[in-house]
Structure formats: C-alpha cells, structure tokens
DNA sequence: AGGATGACATTAC
DNA sequence: GGTAATGCCATCC
C-alpha cells in the first residue's frame, strides 16, 4: 500500500462535503484498512489541495499547530463549532462532532467501497 | 527479527 | 464533562 493508501484517504477526504468533518477512525473504518494512526499519517502525507482540516480527531480537536489554520477553514466553511465553557478566551472552539460528523450517503458509500477496493487490490508491488 | 514512533481511539478515574 | 493511562495498526529505524 503506502502511496495508494494515502491516495485513498485523500479521495475520501476530498469527498467530504463542506461544513462536515470526519474522524481519523472513521476514515480507517470506511477504508476498512489499518487503524486511525495510519489514516492520520496518510493525511499528513497527503498532497496540497487536500482539505485535511475536514478530518479531525474523535474529540473534534486537532493539534495546536493545525488548529489555527483549521479554524479559519471552519469559519469559512461554516462548520459546526462548539465554544468553550467560560474559560478566558482560550479559543478552544473545537468542531462539534455531534453535528459536524459527516454521514456518507448510500451513493457515497458505493463510491467509497469502490475506492477502498482500489486500495485492497493486491497489485504487483510487494513482490519484486 | 525486534523495538520504537505516530495529524488516534477507547476506557477508567 | 474533562483529564490520564493503555491498546491498536502499520510503517520506519
């Protein structure tokens, strides 16, 4: 896998509608391959133009470094955010997984299944 | 072959 | 409800 997995994850992320987000675990779950860590690594290695900000952790939080850029994207996309309860403007506006979580439609599921098949295809790379 | 790492997830306190 | 510790999966050293 390697590159193919990254491409698959990238495609899935690209199919996430604006204002919606998915968790790494969900990506791995949809691809039916590997675990959440691998999904994160794949997204991390995804090429530019990939809406990586639409992919967050199960808590709806994201690493501090990306939180800033992601926040801008969320505001632009109108993603459902939850304000922190009262702390001094800590700006921990994390994504509200409760509503922002994207539910793949049946049609999308078909496409995703086809996509993951592409990854599942043994190809001829392992052997040499 | 073995051990450590990572844009994570889940359970327990 | 939030924070802390443990486990999972796959790749890299």
Question: What is shown here, in short?
Answer:
With 128 residues, the protein is mainly alpha-helical. The chain has 6 helices and 4 strands; from the N terminus they run αβααβαββαα. It has helices spanning 3-14, 24-31, 36-44, 64-77, 97-100, 106-120, and strands at 22-23, 55-56, 81-82, 94-95.
Features:
128 residues; mainly alpha; two-stranded parallel sheet; two-stranded antiparallel ribbon; 48% helix; disordered C terminus; DNA-binding
Notes on the structure:
The chain is mostly helical and 128 residues long. The protein contains 6 helices and 4 strands, in the order H-E-H-H-E-H-E-E-H-H. Helix 1 packs across helix 3 and helix 2 packs across helix 3 (36-44). The chain starts with a helix and ends in an 8-residue tail after the last helix. It binds a DNA duplex (13 and 13 nucleotides) through residues 1-2, 5, 23-25, 28, 33-44, 52, 55-59, 62-63, 65-66, 85.
SSE order: HEHHEHEEHH
Helix amount, in percent?
40-55%
**Structural class designation:** mainly alpha
Distance between the termini: 14 Å
Beta fraction: 5-15%
Shape: globular
Which stretches of 5+ consecutive residues score pLDDT under 50?
A: 86-90, 123-128
Arithmetic mean pLDDT? 84
Biggest β-sheet: strands ordered side by side in the sheet: 1-2
**Strands, count:** 4
Number of H/I helices:
6
* Oligomerization status of the protein chains: single chain
- What value does the Rg take, in angstroms? 16 Å
